[in-house]
Write a structure and sequence with these properties.
By secondary structure, the protein is α+β, with helices and mostly antiparallel strands. It is built from 21 helices and 19 strands. β16, α15 and β17 form a beta-alpha-beta unit.
Length: about 575
């Protein structure tokens, strides 16, 4: 098929781009020898994800570079630009929690994500921690032991924390710098691994509260001490002198690679990361691409310990840190430990991964075939939720190649004269895709609306006005509010889908996700909304009665808890019933 074009490719380094029938780039790769690498896709028999990729290739292009390093840089830039279907993208990659110690103008301790932090001389970062619970519990304990600043802003009066002895009153009082410096030094020392001083402080407090018969407080502190001991014991790494190190190793089997990374800080394992993904390219080149993308989103340590097969000459200029290889000694033991964990994770998760693929990627392919679409890489799903009065919200969630991409989710707040589903759907579709056309944003192959023919017609009417040819379907629910049927937006007929199939599971998951997202936004807006605005909607409550209710109760929750007898002190009985009926939904 590509024989003549393959013969023209030079034996030079560069990046190649595979395209499907619509001209979309579905894979970007790099190679020392472009002709050999690209030819391998079509000359050798492929299996797994590589076979699936090859079946979709309709054309390819390539860019020649001066070196393998330049090819690697180009590959990474093209991956980020085109977001190809078959590349390792770490789309839902998580950022790890750190403890941030802020030194000036006041000493503050808090949990933060690394991606949101900026290092400077006035703060110290400790971590990453394996989970946010451990980090928060550690911060809570240290805030209990030390009178750090805890209130938000700069109140002009001493707050509750000062009066219970958990703050020195920084906003009002002038604090001796020596006291602050000592606290910062002790906390920093503890978070770097020296736990003796903190243990002694906790034991002193336990003894103090026990002597004063405050057994409940003493018990809480004892539990915190036990938890701290467990966390620190789990983190300890023996016989290792390197203070700042990541250990990276991998295990390859059944067409999948398991990447294992240990984060070692101050001679302790403070966290780990495991990702499992299918191999498309040469396994070593895929690993190098994975690492480059991973360290774009995570703290780069001073040292990274890697498998001896990986190319330091490629990785070091991109990740910009020192790479270490080891063939014996304690570092080799760490690499072996990472390998062992990578193997265990792949073996344990393989069955779940295949099951997940069947319910996501393969179900997405099944939906594509059912709707006779040439491709189905992106689905936009919409749901509406009426708030109160004329105030309504809508939510859009996005699935790409079978998986939700939360960074693409969008929320819409609307105020309409006719707050019904038809007009809400028209407004949200117009706002979304008018903006998409204006700003040249990604357009989906399919739009799913949570509802029936009425919502489909509203959506198609707007798309026709915008001259957009996008397939539309509706998802109906039954009387029990469960996913029932998929309606084809062209024929308006219900499509028959086996209720036990992976496709039905996929559609149910989609519908549940958009409903959850929209309802949460609904509740968020409602909780932040003005109580007074809610009361304005109730017949019989004017400005005077509204002020009296707000003065006496202050919140919707307290009004709901109030008895009819209590409310009749302010409102007539009929208005009390109006209020109670209206507040049932809050």
């Amino acid at each position: 098929m590509f024989r003549d074009k393959l013969d023209l490719i030079p034996h030079l380094p560069g990046s190649y781009q595979m395209k499907n029938k619509t001209g979309s780039i579905i894979y970007v790769g790099k190679a020392k020898d472009l002709r050999s690498r690209v030819a391998n896709y079509f000359n050798d028999k492929q299996i797994g994800k590589t076979a699936k990729l090859v079946s979709e290739i309709d054309d390819f292009t390539y860019i020649v570079t001066n070196s393998e390093l330049e090819a690697f840089i180009l590959e990474l830039n093209l991956i980020k630009k085109y977001n190809p279907k078959y590349n390792i993208l770490l789309k839902d990659d998580k950022s790890y929690p750190y403890i941030e110690l802020i030194k000036t103008p006041y000493p503050v301790l808090k949990v933060a994500r690394y991606l949101k932090l900026k290092k400077h001389k006035n703060n110290e970062l400790f971590g990453p921690f394996q989970n946010v619970y451990a980090a928060r519990r550690m911060v809570k304990l240290l805030n209990r032991l030390y009178p750090l600043k805890k209130c938000v802003g700069n109140p002009k009066e001493l707050c509750l924390y000062y009066h219970i002895g958990e703050c020195l009153g920084y906003c009002v009082n002038k604090i001796d710098d020596k006291i602050i410096s000592q606290m910062i030094e002790e906390i920093s020392d503890f978070l770097k691994g020296n736990d003796t001083l903190i243990k002694n402080k906790i034991l002193e407090k336990i003894n103090f509260h026990s002597v004063n018969l405050n057994y409940e407080v003493a018990k809480e502190l004892k539990e915190e001490l036990d938890y701290m001991a467990i966390v620190l014991a789990k983190q300890r790494v023996e016989l290792l002198n390197i203070k700042d190190l990541d250990v990276v190793n991998y295990y390859f089997d059944k067409g999948y690679i398991s990447m294992q990374i240990f984060f070692i800080r101050n001679s302790k394992i403070v966290g780990s990361n495991n990702d499992i993904y299918p191999i498309i390219n040469d396994e070593l080149e895929d690993i190098e691409s994975y690492m480059a993308l991973f360290y774009e989103r995570h703290e780069i340590p001073k040292n990274i310990l890697i498998n001896s097969k990986l190319n330091i000459g490629i990785l070091e200029p991109i990740i910009k840190t020192k790479f270490i290889k080891a063939i014996k000694g304690e570092k080799k033991k760490l690499l072996d430990m990472a390998l062992k964990n990578a193997k265990i994770n792949l073996n344990n998760k393989f069955a779940l991964i295949k099951k997940d693929e069947a319910k996501t990627e393969l179900a997405n392919e099944e939906l594509k075939d059912l709707l006779n679409l040439e491709k189905l890489e992106r689905i936009d799903i919409f749901d509406n939720s009426n708030l109160f009065g004329n105030y309504s919200v809508s939510g859009m969630v996005v699935y790409k190649n079978g998986y939700p991409t939360k960074k693409d989710y969008r929320k819409y707040k609307m105020c309409l004269e006719k707050p019904d589903d038809y007009h809400i759907m028209k407004e949200v579709i117009y706002r979304r895709y008018y903006k998409a056309l204006l700003e040249k944003l990604e357009i989906p192959e399919l739009i799913i609306v949570d509802g029936g023919i009425n919502q489909i017609n509203a959506c198609k009417e707007v798309l026709d006005d915008l001259h957009l040819n996008i397939k539309v379907c509706g998802l109906k629910k039954n009387d029990k509010h469960k996913t029932s049927n998929l309606i084809d937006g062209d024929s308006l007929k219900e499509l028959i889908i086996d209720k036990d199939s992976n496709l039905f599971y996929y559609l149910t998951n989609i519908q549940d996700e958009v409903h959850r997202f929209t309802i949460n936004y609904h509740r968020q807006i409602r909780s932040k909304g003005s109580i007074a605005s809610i009361l304005d909607e109730i017949e019989g409550i004017g400005n005077t009665r509204k002020k009296e209710l707000l003065k006496k109760y202050g919140s919707i929750a307290k009004m709901k808890e109030a008895s009819d007898k209590e409310l009749t002190a302010i409102l007539p009985e009929k208005v009390v019933q109006n209020l109670k009926e209206y507040l049932k939904n809050y």
